[in-house]
C-alpha cells in the first residue's frame, strides 16, 4: 500500500439499488473528479468549493453523459481518511457504477485494496485499532446488541479504558527508569508501596475488562445454541417453529437430518444462532454416523445446549446417557410434544431437578415465548445493560489483555520481593507492549494486514 496514491472503489453493495457510491481518496481526488463532473451550477470549481457540501451535476465520458449524480465533497483533514475524499453518488446500477469507476481509474487512480480507506484512517491517527475492528463489527452486526457493542467501541470506550490502564503503568515505569538512571547515587527506591498500589489498581481494571470478553463476543457473534437429542424427538420441528418457516425437513423416518443446519433469530436484540443437528443413536450407516459426529462437535462448541426430549415417551437409557453428558449450567432441557400429555407432566420429571426445563409443543408452536425468554436470560446473564460498560469483543484483544495482565502480576510480585529495578522495567515494558497491541500502537504488520484484508474493498 502506498499512502501517496489516490485510490477509488465502489463503496456500496453490487446489486440493483436506488443509489450507488464510488469513493475516491487522496491528493488527486478533487482534480480527477473535476475532469469527469459537469456541475449544473455555472462556474463551480470543486477545488474552491466549501467542504462537506453536496453538488448536483452529471458525469461525462468525453462528450457522452453517463449518469446524473450528486458529489459529496470532504476536504482534508476533516474526512474519514483525513485525505481529500470525493463520493460520487449515482444511480445504483451495477453497469453505471462500474462504468464510472473505470473512468476514474483511467485517470491514474488505483483501485483500493480491501479495507484501505479504513487503513488510511488508522495510519493517519484518526482511529485506533479497536475502532477499526468496530467498523468491521458494525458492518457485519447480526443483532441490535451487536450494533450497540460496535458503536460503543467506535466511540472509543475500549481505547479510553486501555489508555487509563497504560497511564498507571507508565507512571510506575517512569519511576523505575528514574531509579535505574540514578542507581549510582546509592539512593534506595522509596516508591515501592505506591507502585504496588498503582499496579494492583491497573490489574483490577484489566481483570474487569477480561471478565467482559465472553459477553463482548456474545454480543458480537450471538449465542450459539445446539439442538441435541435422539432421532424423532422434534429437533427440526422446533427449529422450524422458532424460525416460523420450514427450514429443516421433518419426517417420521429416523436419521432424516444428517448434516448441521444453522439459522439465526433475534430475541430482544440478542442474536441467537440455532444449530439443528443429526439425531444421536447407534447405527451402521456411514453417512448418518458422520452427521452424528458433527452433532458431537456442535455439542462441544455451542454456548448453550437445548437437549430435546419426547415428553410423551418413557425416559430410555440413551436419553439418560445424554443427560449425564451435559452440564446443567449450560443446558436447557426441552420437553417437547406436551400436547400429547393432556396438561400432565412426564412421570420422570423428577430426574431433571438439576436442569432448567421448558415444556413446548413444536407442532402447535406452544411454549415458544417462554423458551425465547429463557434463551435471552441465558445469553445475557452477567451482561450489564448500561452505558458505562466497556467490552473486549474479540480473541485478539482478549489475548493481548491476558498478556498485559500476566506481565503486571509478575511486576507486582517482583516489587513485593524487592527484585532489581532492571527486572521490573522489563516486565512493565512487556505489559505496555501488550496494551499497545490492543489499540494498534505495537501491533505486528502481518496482523494488521490480516485485519484489514477482512474488510470489503470500498471500506
Description:
This protein has 459 residues and is α/β, with parallel strands linked by helices. It has 3 domains: 7-126, Probable tRNA modification gtpase trme, domain 1 (Gyrase A, domain 2, 2-Layer Sandwich); 132-212 and 390-440, Four Helix Bundle (Hemerythrin (Met), subunit A) (Up-down Bundle); 224-380, P-loop containing nucleotide triphosphate hydrolases (Rossmann fold, 3-Layer(aba) Sandwich), CATH 3.40.50. It is 44% helix and 18% strand. It contains 15 helices and 13 strands. It has helices at residues 29-36, 94-105, 116-123, 129-139, 144-154, 157-181, 192-211, 213-221, 235-243, 286-301, 317-325, 368-380, 395-416, 421-439, 445-453, and strands spanning 7-10, 17-25, 37-39, 53-61, 64-74, 85-92, 110-111, 223-229, 261-267, 270-276, 304-310, 331-336, 356-359. α6 packs antiparallel against α14 (421-439). The radius of gyration is 29 Å and the shape is flat. It starts with 6 loop residues before the first strand and ends in a 6-residue tail after the last helix. 38% of the residues are buried. Mean pLDDT is 86; it is low at 248-258.
Amino acid at each position: 500500500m502506498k499512502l501517496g496514491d489516490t485510490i477509488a472503489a465502489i463503496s456500496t453493495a453490487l446489486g440493483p439499488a436506488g443509489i450507488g457510491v464510488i469513493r475516491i481518496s487522496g491528493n488527486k481526488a478533487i482534480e480527477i473528479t473535476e475532469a469527469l463532473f459537469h456541475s449544473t451550477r455555472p462556474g463551480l470549481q470543486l477545488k474552491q468549493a466549501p467542504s462537506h457540501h453536496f453538488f448536483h451535476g452529471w458525469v461525462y465520458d468525453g462528450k457522452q453523459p453517463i449518469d446524473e449524480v450528486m458529489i459529496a465533497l470532504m476536504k482534508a483533514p476533516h474526512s474519514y481518511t483525513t485525505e481529500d475524499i470525493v463520493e460520487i453518488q449515482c444511480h445504483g446500477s451495477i453497469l453505471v457504477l462500474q462504468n464510472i469507476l473505470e473512468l476514474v481509474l483511467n485517470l491514474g487512480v488505483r483501485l483500493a485494496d480491501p479495507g484501505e480507506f479504513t487503513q488510511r484512517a488508522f495510519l493517519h491517527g484518526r482511529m485506533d485499532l479497536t475502532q477499526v475492528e468496530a467498523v468491521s463489527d458494525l458492518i457485519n452486526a447480526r443483532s441490535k446488541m451487536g450494533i450497540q457493542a460496535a458503536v460503543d467501541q467506535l466511540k472509543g470506550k475500549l481505547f479510553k479504558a486501555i489508555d487509563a490502564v497504560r497511564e498507571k503503568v507508565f507512571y510506575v515505569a517512569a519511576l523505575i527508569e528514574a531509579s535505574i538512571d540514578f542507581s549510582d547515587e546509592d539512593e534506595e527506591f522509596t516508591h515501592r508501596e505506591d507502585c504496588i498500589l498503582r499496579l494492583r489498581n491497573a490489574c483490577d481494571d484489566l481483570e474487569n475488562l477480561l471478565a467482559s470478553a465472553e459477553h463482548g463476543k456474545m454480543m458480537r457473534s450471538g449465542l450459539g445454541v445446539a439442538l441435541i437429542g435422539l432421532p424423532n424427538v422434534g429437533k427440526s420441528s422446533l427449529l422450524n417453529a422458532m424460525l416460523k418457516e420450514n427450514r429443516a425437513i421433518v419426517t417420521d423416518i429416523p436419521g432424516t437430518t444428517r448434516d448441521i443446519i444453522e439459522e439465526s433469530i433475534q430475541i430482544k436484540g440478542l442474536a441467537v444462532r440455532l444449530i439443528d443437528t443429526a439425531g444421536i443413536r447407534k447405527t451402521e450407516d456411514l453417512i448418518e454416523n458422520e452427521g452424528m459426529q458433527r452433532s458431537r462437535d456442535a455439542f462441544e462448541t455451542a454456548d448453550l445446549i437445548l437437549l430435546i426430549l419426547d415428553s410423551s415417551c418413557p425416559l430410555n437409557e440413551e436419553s439418560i446417557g445424554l443427560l449425564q453428558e451435559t452440564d446443567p449450567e449450560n443446558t436447557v432441557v426441552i420437553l417437547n410434544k406436551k400436547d400429547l400429555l393432556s396438561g400432565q407432566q412426564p412421570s420422570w420429571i423428577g430426574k431433571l431437578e438439576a436442569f432448567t426445563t421448558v415444556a413446548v409443543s413444536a407442532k402447535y408452536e406452544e411454549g415458544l415465548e417462554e423458551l425465547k425468554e429463557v434463551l435471552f436470560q441465558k445469553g445475557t446473564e452477567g451482561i450489564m445493560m448500561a452505558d458505562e460498560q466497556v467490552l473486549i469483543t474479540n480473541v485478539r484483544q482478549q489475548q493481548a489483555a491476558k498478556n498485559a495482565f500476566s506481565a503486571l502480576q509478575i511486576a507486582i510480585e517482583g516489587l513485593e520481593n524487592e527484585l532489581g529495578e532492571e527486572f521490573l522495567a522489563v516486565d512493565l515494558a512487556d505489559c505496555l507492549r501488550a496494551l499497545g497491541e490492543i489499540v494498534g500502537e505495537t501491533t505486528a504488520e502481518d496482523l494488521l494486514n490480516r485485519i484489514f484484508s477482512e474488510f470489503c474493498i470500498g471500506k
